[in-house]
Amino acid sequence: MPHQLEIRGLHLSFGGLRALVDVNLHVDTGELVAVIGPNGAGKTSLINCINGFYRPQAGTIAFEGRDITRLPPHAVAALGIARAFQNVELFRGMSVLENLTLARHLHLRYGLAHALAYYGRAQAEEAANRRFVEEILDFMELEPYRHQVVGTLAYGVQKRVEMARALCLEPRLLLLDEPMAGMTVAEKEDMARFIIDVNEERGTSIILIEHDLHVVMDLSSRVYVLNFGRVIASGPPQEVARDPRVVEAYLGSEQAGEPA
Amino acid sequence: MKPFPAAGGSAHSTAPAGAAPQDPRALSDGLAAQAAELYSALSPEARTAQTLPQLLWARAAGPDRHRPALRHKEFGIWNQITWEEYAQYVRWTAQGLLALGLKPGETVAVIADNIPEWYYMELAAQAIGAVVAGIYQSSVAREVAYGVQATGAVLVLAEDQEQVDKLLEVRDQIPQVRRVIYEDPRGMRRYRDDPWFLSFQELLELGKAYGGQHPDAVDRLVAQGDPDAVCLMCFSSGTTDLPKPVMLTHRNVLAMGRHFTAIEGFRPGDDYLSFLPLAWMGEQMMAVATGLVAGFTVNCPEEVETIDHDLREIGPHLIFSPPRVWEAQMRQIRVKMEDSTWLKRQVFHWGLHVGLKVADLRFAGQPVPLSLKLLHRFFHFALYRLVQDRFGFLRLRKAYTAGAALGPDVFRFFHALGVNLKQGYGQTETSGIFCVHRDGDIKFETVGTPFPGVEVKVSDQGEIMVRGEIVCRGYYGRDDATQAAFTDGWLHTGDAGYIDPDGHLVIIDRLQDVMRTQGGEVFSPQFIENKLKFSHYIKEAVVFGDGLPYVAALINIDAATVGKWAEDRRISYTTYLDLSQKPEVARLIREEVARVNARLKPEHRIRRFALLYKLLDADDEELTRTGKVRRTLIAQRYRPLFEALYDGRQEVPVRTTFHYQDGRVQELEVRVAIQSLTGEEAQDGLPAAAAG
Which domain holds residue A14? Predict the structure, then answer.
């Protein structure tokens, strides 16, 4: 069976800086795969290539058998790949509900004529969309913030809204870029539970970008380790954690142990 | 034990102790007649039903069957469940419980937020003669294990994975639990293979299948319902002991619901928001028993965190909250006003001032002058309605507080804003409530007048004793505790109190915390201390009188407020010691004490007091770290002062050491004056104070 996402020989460079070098990676349907690595290892660049922000110089990215290497971001999103950004990218002046409803525009099928008439098809679709948004609100436990303006919410809550926005696209593959960065321990635990639930309850495949190895140990089925743009190790998290190259990449410079 | 005489004008009366009927629990004829008269205000089904499920069945077949019984917000929309649908869900659930082999008398424990399934499970268990027991959602695994063990539950309804995980953690300690039913399937996929678990949906399906084979099994059981069967277990508050499961029968909770509904006039069409844990008797009493008797709509909030929003959307007609909720709401209103614009703030302060004036006049039973009435009318539209709207109080007819004493300032605040806030009193053992303020007869130092069908007396020890249909059967599996809780059919409430001349019940304190004067008069030192500390000028007060001829106090003035007061009057002072011994300050505090005395029973009034020359401090072990006074230690440390309170001297020399900030220590002799309140002051309070 072909992989849901297959990346072969990916090269990306900015002038003389080689961000990604011969990256091979695959994700199967329903899998939770983590990509870890120190700061500047190329993790975010990899995601940017997948969802069409960056055009790699060489290599191919195939999603469900279709080459998406050169597709623009909106086309990638329409195919079923959604992304939650590391730095929350929401309309800060709008409410949670408005942000999430806006993310549903991809799934609106009615045209201008229907919109003008409103009653009938447009109304039915809007109602169905609201229903979907409410399900996501419930799923991400965001009901208390429904009508609050995003800019006024705590950072940990904003990250949850960011993930909810991505889920509103009904993705089959979700790209999460450091969803737990800057969170308290309690918030991290909550977020880990949400990630597992998205993966298991909704059956959504996930690529989780994280720089902390410990966070992904219990979450993911497979881990890819990036260092200076190269995949230096991959496999089940326990194996990867013992790999001497990984230990060196992570711990080599820090005798004290814990990667930051 | 002496029965307390019935007060004039009150509907309440007590039977003489000698004429107690054969059954220690049975009502005397007079009270039964009064209760029957009261019940005539109720709807026919509420009068005749013998059990809660019978009442639900009657409502589902009656003229109100298409009215909403429950409402639940889900996915942002309020979903309505009519009485007919409610009964149908209960029937399916009950059939499901029968299919699982639940027998009459067995117990189902519930650990869930206020969701419709809680109600379905409760009424379903009761429909087949089983018992429901609530466990607080916030309990940790150990407490959940205790709750399940103590009630002997064989089935558990758990809301979600969080609660299920607690049960799994203590699974080996609760072997009698046959099945666990969960409401929210989220996160439960890992447990799917475990036959211990069953979703609520699966339970309903089981019930529907069972109903196909035994279509009238549940209806038959409901019709056979025994009014004296235990239907509910709630845990008594366990301040000293582990909480004990209180067994309540249909008769208990229906009597409570009938009284409460008939007295307060709840009716179908009223809305109630159910946001406190259903494991608490207070919520059970409002949302389940009273809800069924009155036929009002119970609204379940979306999430615990959305209550404020849900409250505003529902705009309930009645609210029942413990004091902390009211206190928090008052703070919230005040903070929001302080953050508001200048003009709004001015309107708020003026409007509140007018509101307080009117409220105080009404509390005192005095007429409101026409000019004030007009002003009050103006602010009704300019302020009170607007604030009420913000908090969802626009349709509010009755608001209750119970569980603990609510400060008079909070009471006055809400009345000033037009919220009809009333105090209720009762305990888990008395089905939640048996005393309540009647409309227009509100005294905030009392808990209101007892229900007509309930006998209340004060024992020789000063303890409040209760008897009547609302009183529980006892504690499950704790015969020892049950024995201890009853004397000749009278329930010991554990509270010390008395009935005032208007027939209102006044709670002094927990019996174990009260003191007795030489004359045997029961009083609560904390109660008097708190009243004293309510004055801005008094920082700390220590009340004595246990085994002594009268009540006396040592008082700490508040350095900041008294200092400011002295400066405003050009009274110069140097140190705290100096300030505390100024004759002017003594006069000021004397007025404050007289003011407090005016609100106390004559025997509880402070006859003599002295101002302490030093602030009581936790560092000196005079206060506990939680701020409670250490009475005995203070009496010893300030022995000469303490003795002078009772030996009639006007002044007493005290040697004290004074610690300077730089570490020097100086010995000082201070002559501390002992203040006596004259007979008139001690009895009636200063004329000026009484007016304030």
Answer: 1-80+171-260
